[in-house]
């Protein structure tokens, strides 16, 4: 099973440690594409910091984020599960998982990244600022860049297992299972949506959507469940106490699982 998470906008920079070593990251097949983004991002932020503020959508009150990118190859790196912060990662709370669940998280969970494509929770990366909907000089649109390169990494990480896609819309556009041109990947993919039901109406609430996804992943990792199909995933989540509705929209689209919650 491979669980894909979105990154967090906020990141915690390490205060000590060795800098980034691309060769130590999982999925070295992505390293040329990673290096292209890194080189372009550093060059922009070192040579044209004023332009970087506008091009990267950085608030003018936070120029330190440009400096953060400029030092990307020199700054201390830390485990990705310590760098990414925010609602989803607070709910997942990787540091408090049981030893067995931590091992599963290291092998089964990867984060979609504008800079690195995919990183494992144990990969050591520096903090950075680059949104998925950015266009970067020398690279072009980040979404288009990773659409060209990410498939090989996901295919390698997935193997013959189930893909559990929890990415948000911006990062889902980096790669879609039907891009592989085969129904086998689509059949092994489940996208998960969280809906809040109140007074008979359902809607997505961003903050709690993220928190619920974090709790779902934590529950799966702690349980040791390793479903091989979307239907088995739905069954596993129901066994863990979640209300799950399954929608299969055809052989060309992944199975969508709606997790319906009434309490936020």
Structure summary:
This protein is of the alpha/beta class and 264 residues long.
Shape: globular
Main sheet specs: 8 strands, mixed
Measure the end-to-end span.
28 Å
Number of β-strand runs: 12
How many H/I helices?
A: 11
Element-by-element helix/strand order: EHHHEHHHEEEEEHEHHEEHHEE
SS content category: alpha/beta
Strand content: 15-25%
**Average predicted confidence as pLDDT:** 93
> Low-confidence runs (pLDDT<50, min 5 residues)?
none
Number of domains: 1
Q: Name the helicity range.
A: 25-40%
Whole-number radius of gyration?
18 Å
Describe the protein's topology:
Layout (H helix, E strand, L loop, with lengths): L1 E4 L25 H17 L1 H7 L8 H7 L7 E2 H4 L3 H6 L6 H10 E5 L3 E4 L3 E2 L9 E2 L3 E2 H17 L4 E3 L3 H4 L10 H5 L1 E10 L2 E3 L2 H18 L6 H10 L4 E5 L6 E7 L3
Parallel strand pairs: 1-3, 1-8, 8-9, 9-12
Antiparallel strand pairs: 2-5, 3-4, 6-7, 9-10, 11-12
What does it look like?
The chain has 264 residues and is α/β, with parallel strands linked by helices. It has one domain. It is built from 11 helices and 12 strands. Strands 1, 3, 4, 8, 9, 10, 11 and 12 form an 8-stranded mixed beta sheet that branches. Strands 2-5 form a two-stranded antiparallel ribbon. Strands 6-7 form a two-stranded antiparallel ribbon. Helix 1 crosses helix 2 (49-55), helix 1 crosses helix 3 (64-70) and helix 6 packs across helix 10 (206-223). The mean pLDDT is 93.
């Amino acid at each position: 099973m491979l669980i894909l998470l979105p990154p967090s906008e906020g990141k915690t920079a390490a205060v000590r440690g060795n800098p980034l070593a691309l060769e130590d990251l999982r999925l070295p097949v992505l390293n040329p594409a990673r290096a292209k983004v890194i080189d372009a991002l550093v060059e922009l932020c070192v040579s044209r910091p004023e332009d970087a503020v506008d091009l990267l959508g950085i608030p003018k009150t936070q120029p330190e984020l440009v400096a953060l990118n400029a030092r990307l190859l020199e700054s201390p790196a830390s485990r990705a599960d310590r760098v990414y912060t925010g609602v989803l990662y607070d709910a997942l709370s990787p540091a408090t998982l049981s030893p067995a669940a931590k091992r599963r998280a290291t092998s089964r969970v990867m984060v979609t990244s504008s800079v690195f494509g995919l990183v494992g929770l144990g990969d050591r990366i520096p903090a950075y600022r680059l949104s998925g909907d950015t266009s970067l000089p020398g690279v072009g649109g980040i979404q288009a860049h990773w659409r060209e390169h990410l498939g090989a990494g996901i295919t390698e990480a997935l193997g013959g297992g189930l893909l559990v896609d929890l990415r948000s819309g911006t990062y889902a556009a980096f790669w879609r299972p039907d891009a592989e041109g085969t129904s086998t990947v689509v059949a092994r993919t489940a996208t998960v949506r969280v809906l809040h039901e109140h007074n008979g109406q359902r809607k997505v609430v961003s903050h709690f959507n993220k928190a619920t996804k974090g709790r779902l992943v934590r529950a799966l990792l702690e349980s040791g469940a390793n479903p091989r199909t979307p239907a088995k995933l739905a069954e596993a989540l129901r066994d863990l106490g979640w209300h799950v509705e399954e929608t299969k929209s055809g052989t060309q689209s992944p199975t969508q699982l709606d997790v319906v919650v009434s309490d936020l």
